[in-house]
Amino acid sequence: MGSLFRSEPMCLAQLFLQAGTAYECLSALGERGLVQFRDLNQNVSSFQRKFVGEVKRCEELERILVYLAQEITKADIPLSEGEVSPLAPPLKQVLEMQEQLQKLEVELREVTKNKEKLRKNLLELIEYTHMLRVTRTFVKRNMEFEPTYEEFPSLENECLLDYSYMQRLGAKLGFVSGLIQQGKVEAFERMLWRVCKGYTIVTYAELDESLEDPETGEIIKWYVFLISFWGEQIGQKVKKICDCYHCHVYPYPSTAEERKEIQEGLSTRIQDLYTVLHRTEDYLRQVLCKAAESVSSRAVQVRKMKAIYHTLNMCSFDVTNKCLIAEVWCPEADLHELRRALEEGSRESGAAMPSFLNTISTKETPPTLIRTNRFTEGFQSIVDAYGVGSYREVNPALFTIITFPFLFAVMFGDFGHGFVMFLFALLLVLKEDHPRLTQSQEILRMFFNGRYILLLMGLFSVYTGLIYNDCFSKSVNLFGSGWNVSAMYSAGPASEERSGLALWNASTVRHSRVLQLDPSVPGVFRGPYPFGIDPIWNLATNRLTFLNSFKMKMSVILGITHMTFGVILGIFNHMHFRKKFNIYLVSIPELLFMLCIFGYLIFMIIYKWLAYSAATSREAPSILIDFINMFLFPANEASGLYPGQAYVQRVLLAITVLSVPILFLGKPLFLLWLHHGRGCFGVSRSGYTLVRRDSEEEVSLLGNQDIEEGSNQEARCREVTCEEFNFGEILMTQAIHSIEYCLGCVSNTASYLRLWALSLAHAQLSDVLWAMVMRVGLRVDTTLGVLLLFLVIAVFTVLTVFILLVMEGLSAFLHAIRLHWVEFQNKFYVGAGTKFVPFSFSLLLSSKFSDDNGAM
How far is CA 701 from CA 664, 670, 695, in A? Predict the structure, then answer.
């Protein structure tokens, strides 16, 4: 857990890679994911780098593999997974793999093109066959091809020649036949009439079956048409109109013998095309099946190879151009593994001179690396969403594992709802290796990634639900109530001991709408409920008042404790970075300000709970009045919670007032004192700019070393050149921080009251849902009650899941995130770091190759 408390220590290393072994060394590093490379060629364009040609070659191979994957998917052939993560191909095999893929692409494109051409010809012949069959019934003519039409449309008002005159001019009757889509028939016929002035006769009929369009492959309803026309000019117009409407025009036979001969020829050609097409499809499927065996593994290899060359472009060459120099961030714990990876890469390449590394010192801030597992990954993501932690500062995720689900459960406390959430999360945890969950849709994947967060939220909600004694808005009597109702009833005259007590009699029970239990009566209150709230409060009319008081005080106690813990964690940061002056001048005044006011408020709440009993409860003073009087100093001070309360409160208030100027001026004056060389007391710097690199505080501390390091401090201080020091900026920054903290203590404490508000809202909404749904079904008589109860339970389940579990759960989740980000983490967490992103092939392979096809 040490690595989860702080980010791992990092070092900057130089890798010296021989030109012949660089590819193999980076392949070994990518498999292990140990280092993050720095770009040493930031001023060089990506098109002018050394290995841009190799990157383009990889992109070309990716394009070929994407095309192959698309064709394999189109043919409904499953992609073989093969080896999950094959190694990057050796340089000797890259050219061979490129040649094989290019040859396969050319062959596949030719076979696919021939197949499409054969399919198109087959569809056209089938259309031609249907057209001949339908048009045989359109027109009947004799062997001499004489027209049998006896009349044309009326042309009395047109300046055209009549039928007999056109016969004397030698005009011939022509035919155009073909197929047209169903939706274009009316517009097509109207256009022919307008353009050809009525000198056409259009006959059409609908085909019985839908045919596939040879151009688009869609299944469309077709109409067969036959157009009769006079003259070549009208024929040209008809053909142009057919082209405009994308009609499929086929030759029309002039005689019955020609029609029969064409049909016989079409039948033979269709059979031959079917045979050839089937053989072509079989050969194409064989080629695709063979390609499917290796396309996935080759895609992984190409992506690894491309990542290697991209990383090599970030390296620089030495003056001899025989050695590549790379700078990497590496965890100190992985330096030994890094050396082994370099040795392995050098051994695989067979180089005589092995590659090696050299660690260097730097003042740059290293990236932040926090190792996580399946359980801690979700909680670390919540923290990183606020900001990646600065290098080596305290990581809030370790404490968020407990505090986040607990604060959620305080707002969501219900035993039944929490148990349902726990079962759902437990199912996701038990099935976490199922491939369908890892590849699910976005919403389900979001729940899956947070399955351990849901598991703890449900488990803590069960705990707080038992504390609240709420199970679907109803109390559960597990241990028996601590209140005894019968002790309040007195049938006869009261004894001497009970004569002064307000007991119940028959008249009181009969005429009173509300009966009050008095805990001071002997035997009424027999002791507290063993665990949680007594179930009798579920029957009380003042139940809401009691729960409001309890939850409001509980929220204040939890909030102040949570914030105080955040301030204490800030002390660990100052100790780690050796800025002890921040402990004395910042953290301790902050703690005193917090504890002397709000910590004292917690003390009064707990003291009142412990010091006063049911018998003396009427004498207990109001905490709110006493807390206000702490700042007002009233003249006539009434008796307080305890003797000497007024003097204690004045001392606490004096400490609070004194801590404010220290918080405002202590740190700026100390840094000014350091800047003028009054001493070297403060921090010890050893290589890294740990917090806020360019701040004025760091400028003043650069010239000073910790007195704990020994002698010769003055000489060391004079050796370092102090940069410009701006006291006004430091003072303004500290003043803003102090004002924000002092006011934030009040506002943040009030913000934690959302724990009370959301808990109350959840309980009341659950109670309303029970009263409006379940109670209706339970009150129906026995004849229809059983049948209606199933429907009521179904409606109640759906509303509970969607309203109380999903909506209320999301609301409590967001409020818990806000309490951690704003109220807790801002007390100690800077979150101004950069995340460690290693050169790792596992990050490249996190998504399936098939998922990237659409994007490419």
Answer: 19, 11, 10
Q: Which residue type occupies 97?
A: M
Distance CA 581, CA 708 (A): 13
CA distance 574 to 581: 8
**Cα separation of 405 and 403, whole Å?**
6
**783 burial type by CB count under 10 A (0-12 exposed, 13-18 middle, 19+ buried):** exposed
pLDDT band at 85 (very low <50, low <70, confident <90, very high): confident
The predicted structure's pLDDT at residue 516: 82
Q: Provide the residue type at 43 as one letter.
A: N
pLDDT tens digit sequence for 558-603: 999 999 999 999 999 999 999 999 999 999 999 999 999 999 999 9
Q: Choose which CATH entry (3.40.190.10, 3.30.70.3040, 3.30.70.2750, 1.25.10.10) describes domain 115-142+171-279.
A: 3.30.70.2750
What is the spatial distance between Cα 198 and Cα 187, in angstroms, rounded to a whole number? 15
Beta strands in 484-562 (DSSP E): none
Residue 651 has, within 13 A of its CA and on its CB side, a CA count of 6
> 181: which 2 tokens?
């889509």
Report the pLDDT value the prediction gives residue 83, as an integer from 0 to 100.
64
Note the pTM of the prediction, 2 decimals: 0.79
pLDDT of residue 493: 54
- CATH 3.30.70.2750 domain locations along the chain: 115-142+171-279
Round to whole Å and give the CA distance between 328 and 315. 10
Q: Report the alpha-carbon distance of residue 583 to residue 572 in Å, rounded.
A: 9
pLDDT for 782 equals 66
